Amino acid sequence: MDESNEKWLSDILRVGAVSAIIIVIIFLSELIIVAIFGLPPVFGSAETWLFALQENRILGILQTFSLDLIAVALHVPLYVALFFFLQDNKKGYGLLVLSAVISFIGIAIYFSSNPTLSMVYLSDQYSVATSEMQKSQILNSAQAMIALWNGTAPIAATNLFGLAGVLISIVMLQTSKFTKGVAILGIVGNTLQLGPPVPLMPHLYVEVDPFFIFVGAVILLFWYVAIAIQLWRGAKNN
């Protein structure tokens, strides 16, 4: 590999490492907010969500997982970096390509179905509404956004993210660039993001899945940090 290609690869790995750390900061902030203030208003009424954004915009954005938009977008440079970092593993190359494709599909679905920016706009409109009819119309629109957020697309996006993470963790198991412990963290943490199948166990999903996601997210914090460290080392040693 010539010098220009080596520099190009090192830059990609560094961007991936920084992306992983920013993802950790965002997820950690959201976990702390949930631990202190409880579950976000996405599990409540439209009015609860709108009021949360009105009373304290920063807290409301954190509590409604609005920063996930940034975290999800940062998975693009992260998965690109992991792809180049692990591509010399011929045995797991197919899984590596599949995980990248699945993750990018999940990102596209997530952005197309995420209602948080719309809810911020509706919250501002609700605060200046002067008639009960206007407020009722805004609440109906907000409720439709919440229904979208709890619908098939966001659940599919979450499951695709989890599946992509499991697949890339399996590839990590097949290479010496990551320890088995890091790969197992990724498999366990991402598997917990999947949750039980909604059509078969809807009540179990609502009651248990938030707990699975919380535990999985804590595990994934360590996984992302380990990835960042290895990508940064890979950039230095390249």
Jot down its keywords.
82% helix, mainly alpha, 10 helices, 238 residues
Low-pLDDT segments: none
- Overall mean pLDDT score? 83
Distance between the termini: 10 Å
The proportion of residues in beta strands is: under 5%
Question: Care to count the β-strands?
Answer: 0
> What can be said about the biggest beta sheet?
none
| Class based on secondary structure composition and strand pairing | mainly alpha
Order of helices and strands: HHHHHHHHHH
C-alpha-based Rg, rounded: 20 Å
Measured as a percent range, the helix fraction is over 70%
- Report the principal-axis shape: elongated
- Count of separate DSSP helical elements: 10
Architecture overview:
The protein has a domain at 3-156 and 228-237. The chain is 82% helix and 0% strand. The chain has helices at residues 3-37, 46-55, 57-63, 68-86, 93-113, 116-128, 132-149, 152-173, 180-194, 202-237. α4 (68-86) packs antiparallel against α5, α5 (93-113) packs antiparallel against α8 and α8 (152-173) runs antiparallel to α9. The termini are close together.
Q: What does this entry show, briefly?
A:
The protein contains ten helices and no strands. By secondary structure, the protein is mainly α. The chain has a domain of 164 residues.
Topology, please?
Elements: H1 3-37, H2 46-55, H3 57-63, H4 68-86, H5 93-113, H6 116-128, H7 132-149, H8 152-173, H9 180-194, H10 202-237
Helix pairs in contact: 1-4, 1-10, 2-3, 2-6, 4-5, 5-8, 6-7, 8-9, 9-10
